[in-house]
Amino acid sequence: MSELPLQGKKILLRGFNPELMAQAGQFLSQHGYQTTSISSQAEAVILGPESAPSAEAAAKKRNIPVHVWTDFKSVVLLAESGAGVPLNELPRLPALEIRDDSVRVLDITMPRQTGRHPFVPSGERFRHLCFDGPLLRNARAAALGASLGLPVALEGETAASKTTAVLWLAHLANQPVVRLNLNGQSDTSELVGRYVPGGGFEGWDVESLHQHADLLEEETQRILARIRVSNRPLSWAEQVALAANEKIPALAWRFQEGFIPQAMREGWWVLLDEINLAEPQVLERLNPVLEIPPTLVLTEERGTVFGPGGQVPVSEQFRLFASMNPAEYAGRSVLSPAFRDRWAIWHQSEIPGEAEYLAMLRCAVFGEQPDVVFEGVCYQSPPTKPVHPDLAEIGGITQILERLAMFHASLAQASGTGGAAPTLGRLRRERYVFTRRTLLTCLQLLSRWRRVMPQESSEHQLRHVLDAAYLSRIRDGSDRNAALALVRAAGLSPE
Fold first, then answer.
1. Between residues 248 and 172, which one has the greater pLDDT?
2. CB atoms < 10 A from the CB of 31, how many?
3. Coil/strand/helix, residue 321
4. Are 312 and 265 in contact (CB under 8 A)?
5. Are strands 92-94 and 377-380 parallel, antiparallel or unpaired?
6. How far is CA 188 from the centre of its chain?
7. pTM over the 0.85 mark
8. Which residue, 100, 96, 72, 68, is CA-closest to 84?
9. φ and ψ at 447, to 5 degrees?
């Protein structure tokens, strides 16, 4: 058997049935390893009892070690009982360290801003977070880019904590951040700016206009009546309508900078969410912004130059981030090599496994945070306030959470999470999607169900929750029967 991979390395499991896969994933997590479903990320492959010749051949081609599960497990246990370093003897550090002028995530320290700004994300939105390995490694990649002044792209499956990691890091660093959700209709004006009416009506006294309503057109009167009731200024569309109704000459237009030049000027972070939903020619407009140092020429305006030698210096705090699902997702564009190459840090975000699902459930119910092994160090996060402490009162809740995590991991794998061929919904044009959000919804429903139906047993309450959160999404027939089999295999069926 080849030498064991170091603790913290990413392991690809192949040749396992769902139940054994869940057990192997939990064992690896407990002994300081990560699991991944993406073969290109794997630093070692472990083969289960079922045949997986293609995985073994691919591993040998990439020159990464291949292990047999039973041998690997025995050697790990033997190493921990002998000369190896068990998890509880690894060096231990806090996962986060926040100071007045800096914040550390795992082993990366970056500056922390002072003062208050409305664009700094509120801590309330992150109160449910479980600081597990995938989240902390996403945040570390973002912190690495932030500390070095490099653009960072995070690519991964839905609900792989990509966007959350950047926004959470901005919260920790007290850093203003603007999130732009891109789509197929996005154009360059959303990024760099557009011409808008130069004003002319915003300061007008709507009450005075009402006093002279007999001089105005009927449509103008109706617009002013709406404004008066809602007690707000005239919108851009209403300004244009009033000008047309009253035959007032066209308003002056002015150039309004988009968030990219504003962020370069003010030192904000910009997060381009779902970046590969936008058209490639739109994104190419950002190529000079991704250079080191960043530059931008506003040809849409008067040719204002941002960056070295220009009229506007770029703030040292300006950073650019992007998040995206893999190109295989429906509706995603293929990014040009020139655009991709300009993202200095391109991080492949990991999808969570059963161990991460269980850690998230325990965090939500008990406030526990998991230990995370990275580069031979065990990082610890302090306990947090649980989101659903009432669920801790359920008898046998620990076992229920373990079974729920096992069921969710099995169902997610069967639906094709991680790019594997789905066995559930394989004839559908769109695969089923079960993510962390589904699990959080499950806990919310269970908490609510206990309040409205306290006389029911916890088993039946949980079954109602599974029906609402999972089974109702699945078509009747073979897919529903397969999902019900996973419910029974996880021990969640009350029958």
1. 172
2. 17
3. strand
4. yes
5. parallel
6. 24
7. no
8. 72
9. -60, -40
Owner of token pair 């004003």? 199
> Binning pLDDT at 50, 70 and 90, where does residue 238 land?
confident
Instruction: Name the residue with tokens 């103008």.
Output: 220
pLDDT at 118: 94
Cα distance between residue 82 and residue 80, in whole Å? 5
Whole-angstrom distance, CA of residue 420 vs CA of residue 414: 8
Q: Does residue 126 contact residue 296 with C-beta atoms inside 8 Å?
A: no
Q: Which two tokens stand for residue 316?
A: 């040292």
Helix (H) or strand (E) holding 142: helix 133-148
Helix or strand run (H / E) with residue 71 = helix 69-81
CA gap 424, 90 in Å, rounded: 40
Average pLDDT, stretch 247-265?
Answer: 82
| Strand ranges (E), 377-427 | 377-380
**d(Cα 69, Cα 13) in Å, to the nearest integer?**
9
Residue type, 370: P
Residue 49: CB partners within 8 Å, gap ≥ 6? Answer: 15, 16, 20, 69
- Distance, C-alpha 4 to centroid of its chain: 31
Residue keyed to tokens 């997610």: 412
The two three-digit tokens of residue 60, written as one number: 């040998």
* C-alpha–C-alpha distance, residues 197 and 241, integer Å: 12
Q: Note the pLDDT tens digit of each residue in 347-370.
A: 999 888 888 899 999 999 999 999
Type and span of the H or E element at 77: helix 69-81
Rounded (10°) angle between helices 436-452 and 354-366: 40
**Contacts with 182 (C-beta within 8 Å, 6 or more apart), sequence order:** 190, 272, 273, 274, 275, 277, 278
Give Cα 339 distance to the centre of its chain.
22
For residue 212, the Cα-to-chain-centroid distance in whole angstroms is 54
d(CA 306, CA 320): 15
Q: How far apart are CA 138 and CA 410, in angstroms?
A: 24
DSSP 302: T
Contact 294, 264 (CB under 8 A): yes
The Cα–Cα gap between 39 and 423 comes to 19
- CA-closest candidate to residue 89, choices 79, 98, 99: 79
Task: Give the angle 390-391-396 at the CA atoms, nearest 5°.
Answer: 135
- Helix (H) or strand (E) segment spanning residue 297: strand 296-298
The token pair at 309 is: 């030698």
